[in-house]
């Protein structure tokens, strides 16, 4: 079963996470297929830019708790988006949770509809937003993020833009994106690649400096007793034992 739907229009390749029955959770299979699709787009001279979007009502619910990718695979995918020699634009019309926010932050431009909602839900299942912090913290406001990192609360597109997680938002995300995609189509491919390289220098420095430590932290937390209780509680639709 294909988990990534591919379409193309006027040199813009659209990759849609296409596992709506699993809320586009980041399974090992989906991560692998998305990495392959991005690699194909990177080497195709007919692709000027990539749009990363979704089917269904959820952009991504984060890691698939039944079939999670290894932390190293998620790190590699996030870095691949950041390093892709073509702009990657996120198009969001639904919910974004946990690891899905890592995908969002790895993109060069991120746009959402006003219907979209966001949450760093990791703390509520006994883990931390470790690996996804690699692209998030260099691009977002740590003070603005602190509340949402620490509480797991849901927040809307306006707050997501204020923190730096989104570039823009609006009632109709495609109306918002049209001038952006038009601008990318009018830009020279080599100039786009070099300009993206300028913009991603600090993000890649974070990967070089912190990826190993954050990967180890993620693996340790996901194997902890608190995480087992949190994930079990989530699957059983109950509060975990630590809720007071």
Your description of this structure?
There is one protein chain. The protein has 244 residues and is an alpha/beta fold. Helix content is 47%, strand content 17%. The protein is built from ten helices and ten strands.
Number of strands: 10
- CATH fold-level topology: 2-enoyl-CoA Hydratase, Chain A, domain 1
The CATH superfamily is identified as 2-enoyl-CoA Hydratase, Chain A, domain 1
Low-confidence stretches: none
CA distance, first residue to last residue: 42 Å
Order of helices and strands: EEHEEHEEHEEHHEHEHHHH
- CATH arch. level architecture: Alpha-Beta Complex
Number of helices: 10
Decide which structural class fits the backbone.
Answer: alpha/beta
Radius of gyration based on Cα positions: 17 Å
Strand order within the widest beta sheet: 1-2-3-5-7-10
How would you describe this structure in keywords?
single chain; 244 residues; alpha/beta; 2-enoyl-CoA Hydratase, Chain A, domain 1; six-stranded mixed β-sheet; 10 strands; 47% helix
